[in-house]
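ok so i was messing around last nite and threw this chain in just to see what happens. nothing serious, just curious
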Amino acid sequence: MKVADKARADPAIPISPAAANAAAASFAALTAKLDYLDPADVERVRLAYRFADEVHLGQLRNSGEPYITHPISVAQQCAEWKLDAQALAAALLHDVIEDCGISKAEVIERFGAPVAELVDGLTKLDKLQFNTREESQAESFRKMLLAMARDVRVILIKLADRTHNMRTLGDMPVVKRSRIALETLDIYAPIAHRLGLNLTYRELQDLALRYLRPWRYGVLAKAVSKARGRRRDLIQKVQIELEGVFAAHTIPVRISGREKTLYSIYRKMREKHLSFAEVTDIYGFRIIVPSVIDCYTALGVLHQLYKPVPGKFKDHIAIAKVNGYQSLHTTLVGPSGVNVEFQMRTEAMHMVAESGVAAHWLYKANETGSTNADRLGNKWLQSLLDIQHETHDAAEFWDHVKVDLFPDAVYVFTPKSQIMALPRGGTVVDFAYAIHSDVGDRAVSARVNGEQVPLRTELKNGDVVEVRTDPASAPNPAWLGFVRTGRARSKIRHHLKSLAQSESEALGEKLLVQAVRAEGIPNLPEDSDENQPLWDKLLHFSGNRTRGELLTDIGLGKRIATMIAKRLVTLLAEVGEKPDALLLSRERYAAHEAVSQGAVVLDGSENASVQFAQCCRPIPGEPIVGYLGRGEGLVVHTALCSVGQRLRYKDAERFIAVEWSDEPTRSFETGIVVTVANGKGVLARVAAALAAAEADITHVDMGEEPAQEATDLRFVIAVRDVAHLESVLRHLKRTGPVLRAMRAQPSR
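result:
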């Protein structure tokens, strides 16, 4: 449903001559803006207008105007951005598929495939409903952002469409105004800002404020009008002084005033708890000069004319904003002690500052061989497609993207002086993924300004960052707790999901092989064309789509290996393959003796597919049992753990044989309780004893109760095996203030 509802008039009732004249005049105004197109392109736009006028005949807007006035207004805005003839035709036709029953095929036949694709993309966006339900809203965002990434003209036309609808929002029913204005403020204005469309961004914000906070909007508008009148003489005086000083230095300049928007004044007052009188930077000046060198020369001239305000200078030319914006900003103490902001930029910078990605059409760079994406200069659009490739869940996609919509950026450097922009709060890991996904995945350490720092270090403007990688390294799940960019978050999650799936599939295959051996079948049937019918029947039984998915589900505990094995044996019997009686008796005897040859061997390298229970924290050298939890993979308990015993009583069929490898690959965490005589330096002495025993402390808990004569210190330490733990406890018992040291008992 369009933002501007359509009212269909009776076709038998003719449109008034005044309304027809209004439409004709509107198109005449459009053609006056098409002087940048060649005659053939102008004729294509005219044909699109005639077709749109014909199919929209009889449709009226809420204001009573012929509906064709809306597509013309949208096309006029696109012409302001100097979009090509295809985009202008699509702007005129953007409602014909949705509202007039025209097929995409007919648009292709009349205007060509590129125009039809733009119209089709806009039609899909128009059908998006921004409901309060989160999942529906997230899917809407995803479709819109991906359409924008594929062809930026789609979102440019959509923003022109939304701008005209906001200009005429007063004709809408009151109940719809707030919803549409809020949607504009939350979605379309941030996208316009992210794409550098500052004129559109500011206008959408002001129009949204007008309908969301009409009383505040009216009060602020009056206050700004009065302030403008009071400061007219001041502004004129500054203007005259500027013209004189630049003429004296023979610098050709174009000077224009800049006034803060009502929404930005409102937001500043609300966020900083200021009164209107305390907002001092309402007015400013833009100084347009021929070249970049002239920008810096103009800055020097201004600083000689007025005194600069300390800390109020920003160089966005040397380091452009992430949406391509470039200018020098300085705030000076003008006449009567009033602070005035000045912005210096070239004509090309001004076009980019006002029109963002649309400046690709406004200002043609002379670079040869540069791609369209290079000229747009906006990596964010491509990053949307990268994130979509990693993330298929709409809510997760939106979660990744929304952190980039309002980038309060910091700018850092690579060792080769390449500038990288990151959101404020961005870390070394964000920087690594901004360089390349492989750099992020393999990052192990970093140096910032020549000093070693943790990977979670937040970067500041001007930092020089060097990331060191290791081919054997992989992303750490803990990184998700501090990364700031959607790209880094999506890459880490994608890697962890892939890793967990591959490990669970390997565990599932091991469990299924063990289960079929217990049924007298030496090995699983090979995954070959010959055995495909057999696997298809087994997958039909289990409800899985692929062999890998079935094995993953077994590894995650979503399917029971013994049940799948029994079904597989039945299917094999149907094709004449019977169990091996000798293997069957040997496996069952071994299982009876509890020394099954099919036990899962654990060495600590299993990562996501195996969890060691927090209640008892098993370590190598002690008896263990494996519980195949539902959806959480294999959970290992000690054989004496009370939690494991209760699970075995309730769910015995989910327990499988597990045993330790002879050579574990890492240390394992376990809990100990150390009772000490309270005194100065006790914790340090206990920690020193643990270090002497080669045990790493991963957590310490001293409780919240006031210190007594004897206090329990609870540690989680990493040890190699049971023998190492016993050695650690002996070291502790020989330490002076230690009264008792023992392993923590499983929580019940």
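not much to say yet. Residues 86 and 115 are 5 Å apart (CA to CA).
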